[in-house]
Design brief:
This protein has 600 residues and is α/β, with parallel strands linked by helices. It contains 21 helices and ten strands. It is elongated and about 120 Å long.
Length: 600
Amino acid sequence: MHPREPRWTPPPKDPDNPADVRRVLRLFRPYRGRLAFVGLLVAAASLVTIASPFLLRAILDTALPERRTGLLSLLALGMIATAVLNSVFGVLQTLISTTVGQRVMHDLRTSVYAQLQRMSLAFFTRTRTGEVQSRIANDIGGMQATVTSTATSLVSNLTSVIASVVAMLALDWRLTIVSLLLLPLFVWISRKVGAERKRITTKRQKQMAAMSAIVTESLSVSGILLGRTMGRADSLTASFAEESEQLVDLEVRSNMAGRWRMSVIGIVMAAMPALIYWAAGISLDAGGPAVSTGTLVAFVSLQQGLLRPTVQLLSTGVEVQSSLALFQRIFEYLDLPVDITERADPVRLERARGDVRFEDVRFSYDPLSKAPTLDSINLTVPAGGSLAVVGATGSGKSTLSYLVPRLYDVTGGRVTLDGIDVRDLAFDTLAESIGVVSQETYLFHASVAENLRFAKPDATDDELADAARAAQIHDHITSLPDGYDTLVGERGYRFSGGEKQRLAIARTILRDPPVLILDEATSALDTRTELAVQEAIDSLSAGRTTITIAHRLSTVRDADQIVVLDHGRIAERGTHDELLALDGRYTALVRRDAQLTPVV
């Protein structure tokens, strides 16, 4: 056991940091070719769109007054053609942009998952599982609309705005100035709304993570068992309801943020045609040049074509600002420092002999702590030998076992395998060389065969059966209706503790590691089941270097060397008989163990 570690908290972020925007844009860099094609489609669509008002002006000012039916037919066909082309361009834009957006989301999900796979065990002891799941599911999922449509929306609307302004200037520069007077106000309003939504989005995602953590913990098999047996189901429901109520408030605030401000923009948009008609009338009354009916109608049409993409641009800006809160939460995970890394040129062993040494090892979960978890540990376990580590709870037994497969790195000294510092070995060499069977057996919600093949994906059915026989579990598996295709259930709850342990042992046998670590593998079992599991362990340990973290001392009497840890230091060492002769700590542990072991 190790002391409780502080919960991980993300570093503070500058909400207006432009680096985040640049980093988001870099996510699209691998797809710039497709996005460039989308840009061409958007430009073409914009040119086609602004053609319609000019065609309309020609109909009103020329074709109809002059009764030129041929010209009228061509102009009408032209307007129909622009609608068809716009639809075709829109479908292609949607297809490409959605594909690019989904690929970006896939890249993000994969990057976050890969980053978490590289994190040390310490990170996961400080972080709730629900929080991790929320980052991958809720945060990345919340970006979907923005990521899949933002690039196209920005290019499309920006191109439309520029094209519309140019066309409006060509029609009447004075009316254009009137139309553009209120744009700065629109921009200011949208920025205020975006900043407000970004703040609320950050709070909302944190609340969703908290809810996800409650669901993960309380609705797991273990959580349900604990809640039912403790009579806390109603209390857990009330706690969930309280968290959900807070989320309701944040969702309402998120959706209502800036609604009144944005409604002002909508009102102004609706009033702009009337303003243009009024301005044209005032200009004419003041002796200014007359504006033809066709020009006026075409101008109003262009103006609406300007205001719609302008408002959409502003809305996109608001959504981007809100999404930056989600991107920041994802980037926090991508920027997590990886404590345990593989060196650039790691050492690979074809097959380790299994010689394990601890050389003046020191370790602390808190580098600033004055009382290390392990201190001055010097041990040698020759290839094929066995070491048992015993001691009181909290003495550092499990921590010692974590250092061999590099679940943690030493803070002083070194641990070696075949004379090579484990920090210099390739990760795949460590995984192939060291097998771990712990007290808390983890099984996937999959079939027995799939759980076993997790250790060796290409294992044949005969190899599965041989490993199961060696682990004393084959007969039980074959007695089940579905045999090796039997689903083990969530965390293996369809099997007893002893059966799960034997499945874990069979899984390790398939890997055939030269070094075996048994971390209190039988401590949670009754005496009868322990005997059956111990037979499987004896079969697994034969010919391997074995390090056993012992809770029940009856399982380690035959170890080549027994070490007694006390507050992270080696208090005694020797064989079973030698330690009994000392009549020290080990002898006291043996007497206590004898008193606690029930007679069968």
